[in-house]
């Protein structure tokens, strides 16, 4: 177990800045996922921690030791990669114990550690099998056991589940969580799959273009994203974004208005351009809710249903905001479109005119120019579309 600290770590490859001024403080025993799109610098960050590459600037500590210039073998880390790379002609026991045998551990100690690791990853009884007699998931467990026997302070895992099929991936997620609990060790885990990060981590570090965007517990990233990038990356399907302008009584978009008092957000001024974000589960069909005029909801918005995606447990409904229906799904653009999630028993069809409302307590506002978050929820900021608070005096009247 150990704390891992990155202090202003930058890694440049000629003119590419793979990692830019990264500061991370990963606590002892924490499970942190590094997530972000391909090329955002996840693997490079991990490689600087592992010692496979040296940062151009900055320092890295594992525990109290400055490991920035130490070779990988002296850092107390064990890595598990996407490519499992087991030795094909060695059985499971030989694969797991390979590193220990190389370091001349005595046989008794090796046997003890292999048995323990095999127990943790549930490979007991399979120690004499060769890799080709194992499933993909079992092979990945051998690779993890090989890391466990080294008794590392920190596990570094770079997309270890990426080559497994979807069902096995979900199963292995729970196995890794169990493993983390059992070993009580620090795990840093790279993935481009936000669902994997959401389900497993204590905290998620979201990266974009080599820069750390946010590091927080999964639900904080989901409910209070620091910027539009994190808002769009965390959550599947993605948050809807609609461009708008700040007016005296809220935000006006091409198709609807959201009422609140902009004075409630000190950095906001009338005329500012903002992106309004709302998740598909926070868009409601008026016919399906008890009180569509409840104060925390927006006014009704006329939309036309476009494509439906029945998922079994919910239906995703693409809604067209535009009056003329030229922006259909074929455009693939999100402008003029809103995705709504409804329960599977909802009677709804494509090409139907319906009314929807948005939950104002779940509306996020982002500065259009910088992407920075300005507000998470506007329902408590009184204005049009909400009941004025008791005793409140209307201004300008
Ligand atoms: P990720 O793991 O998020 O997909 P990487 O850390 O692999 O991203 O890469 C970040 C950026 O650094 C990319 O633009 C990639 O092309 C670049 N990069 C990574 N490794 C090298 C290298 N050895 N030489 C040059 N550029 C590299």
From TrEMBL:
* Keywords recorded for this protein, A-Z: ATP-binding, Nucleotide-binding, Transport
A Pfam match? ABC_tran
Per its record, what are the GO molecular function terms? Answer: ATP binding; transmembrane transporter activity
Task: Name where it mostly resides.
Answer: membrane
- EC number annotated for this UniProt entry: 7.5.2.13
Membrane topology type, per the record? Peripheral membrane protein
The superkingdom of the source organism is Archaea
Locate the ABC transporter domain: which residues? 4-234
GO-annotated cellular components: plasma membrane; transmembrane transporter complex
Q: What class of enzyme is it?
A: translocase
- What catalytic activity does the UniProt entry give for this protein? L-arabinose(out) + ATP + H2O = L-arabinose(in) + ADP + phosphate + H(+); D-xylose(out) + ATP + H2O = D-xylose(in) + ADP + phosphate + H(+)
Where does this protein reside within or beyond the cell? Cell membrane
User: CDD domains attached here?
Assistant: ABC_MalK_N
Similarity field: Belongs to the ABC transporter superfamily. Carbohydrate uptake transporter-1 (CUT1) (TC 3.A.1.1) family.
Assembly and oligomerization = The complex is composed of two ATP-binding proteins (XacJ and XacK), two transmembrane proteins (XacH and XacI) and a solute-binding protein (XacG).
What does the protein in this record do? Part of the ABC transporter complex XacGHIJK involved in the uptake of xylose and arabinose. Responsible for energy coupling to the transport system.
Name of the protein this chain belongs to = ABC-type D-xylose/L-arabinose transporter
Lineage from the top down?
Answer: Archaea, Methanobacteriati, Methanobacteriota, Stenosarchaea group, Halobacteria
């Amino acid at each position: 177990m150990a704390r891992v600290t990155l202090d202003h770590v930058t890694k440049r490859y000629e003119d590419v800045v793979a990692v830019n001024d990264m500061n991370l403080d990963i606590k002892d025993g924490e499970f942190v996922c590094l997530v972000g799109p391909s090329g955002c610098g996840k693997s490079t960050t991990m490689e600087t921690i592992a010692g496979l590459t040296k940062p151009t600037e900055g320092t890295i500590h594992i525990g109290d030791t400055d490991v920035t210039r130490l070779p990988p073998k002296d850092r107390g880390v064990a890595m598990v990669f996407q490519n499992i790379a087991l030795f094909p002609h060695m059985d499971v026991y030989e694969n797991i114990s390979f590193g220990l045998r190389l370091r001349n551990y005595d046989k008794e100690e090796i046997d003890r550690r292999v048995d323990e690791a095999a127990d943790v990853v549930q490979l007991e009884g399979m120690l004499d099998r060769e890799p080709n007699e194992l499933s993909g998931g079992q092979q990945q467990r051998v690779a993890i056991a090989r890391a466990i026997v080294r008794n590392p302070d920190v596990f570094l895992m770079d997309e270890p589940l990426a080559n497994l099929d979807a069902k096995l991936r979900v199963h292995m997620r729970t196995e890794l969580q169990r493993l983390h609990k059992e070993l009580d060790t620090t795990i840093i885990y790279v993935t481009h799959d936000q669902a994997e990060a959401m389900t497993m981590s204590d905290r998620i570090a979201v990266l974009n273009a080599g820069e750390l965007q946010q590091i927080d517990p999964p639900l904080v990233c989901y409910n209070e994203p620091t910027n539009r990038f994190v808002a769009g990356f965390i959550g599947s399907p993605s948050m809807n974004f609609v461009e708008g302008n700040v007016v005296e009584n809220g935000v006006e978009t091409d198709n609807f208005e959201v009422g609140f008092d902009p004075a409630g957000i000190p950095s906001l001024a009338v005329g500012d351009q903002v992106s309004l974000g709302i998740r598909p589960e926070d868009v409601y069909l008026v016919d399906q809710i008890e009180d569509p005029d409840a104060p925390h909801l927006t006014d009704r918005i006329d939309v036309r249903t476009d494509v439906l995606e029945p998922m079994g447990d919910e239906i995703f409904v693409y809604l067209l905001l535009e009056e003329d229906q030229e922006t259909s799904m074929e455009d693939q653009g999100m402008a003029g479109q809103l995705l709504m999630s409804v329960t599977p028993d909802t009677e709804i069809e494509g090409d139907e005119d319906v009314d929807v409302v948005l939950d104002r307590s779940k509306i996020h506002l982002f500065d259009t120019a910088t992407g920075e978050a300005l507000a998470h929820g506007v329902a408590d900021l009184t204005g049009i579309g909400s009941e004025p608070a008791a005793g409140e005096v209307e201004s300008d009247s």
